[in-house]
Amino acid sequence: MSTDPTTTIGIGIGIVGLGKIARDEHIPAIAGEAAFQLRALASRSTTLPDVECYETLEAMLAEAADVDAVALCTPPQVRYALAARALTAGKHVLLEKPPGMTLSEVVDLRDMAAGSGCSLFATWHSRFAAGVEPARQWLAERRVRTVRILWKEDVRVWHPGQEWIWEPGGLGVFDPGINALSILTRIMPHAVFLTEAELEVPENRQAPIAANLAFTDRRGADIRAEFDWRQEGPQLWTITVETEEGTLELAEGGSRLAIDGEAVPLSAAGEYPGIYRRFADLVRSGTSDVDVSPQRHVADAFMMGRRIAVAPFTE
Ligand code: NAP
Q: 20, 91, 97, 152: which is the annotated catalytic residue?
């Protein structure tokens, strides 16, 4: 590794997989974060100006100069092999969400990173939405009675042509739904666990298009989540938490917060700039951040959920 943890600039980074999220969020966030310099790209299909471009991560690791870290922006099904190669080559690794295809492979990556001098960061971008940390603080001292999560979007608008998302390991509607679970697991004062799950799976697909979930916690909170990819009209990404001392609502994916109907002023900072600031801190301090709890709830839902066959889905 060529990263000097005492400096605040100059972590050379390479992106792997130039799809929607790499273009929309990673490239602008890296450009805006002084600690990082985008030095390389590994893409099966395309190139970028002003960076060294390779078709594979292997070629990038073998040839790219001054790449200290990689951001893996591929689908989850191919993430483990890429991350393991990068860690073995002594690189810091940022994982898009979900951090892998299975819990076990993510835990193995965490074990590989431990003591290696490389930082592993399993990102949950929704946790960096502006309302999430104030919500966590407000809830920390309160007793939660109910939580209602509505995560309803139009898959044709947000995931056009993404076949991997319907394949095993692609998670279907849990690909966005896991963002709600990443917020829930961050803001709740106690751990939650699933009690019921219904998964609606199109007859021609491997992954659910909708899910209804019920959770509780050690104090008996009544927590329900509805994920649906068939939403037309207004798109909903809201979490409403009723406590004994008032009601909190996170809207628009956590970027808006209201308490008892009053909007709470929030910073305008975006999610991905926060992710890269955190990654820089992890690299500087030689630590990792790997929380599998959102993915564990998805695994629980697939393990104990009742499957309901629904109409075939076509683009
Ligand atoms: P995407 O548009 O399909 O892009 C994924 C890219 O990964 C592809 O363009 C391809 O880039 C590369 N890739 C490597 N192996 C692949 C394979 N076997 N199948 C398909 N692509 C492969 O997907 P995305 O929306 O950017 O999502 C990527 C990850 O980011 C997912 O885990 C997703 O959950 C997460 N994420 C997405 C969003 C969003 O709004 N889309 C938001 C937050 C997080 P090359 O052709 O350059 O190799």
A: 97
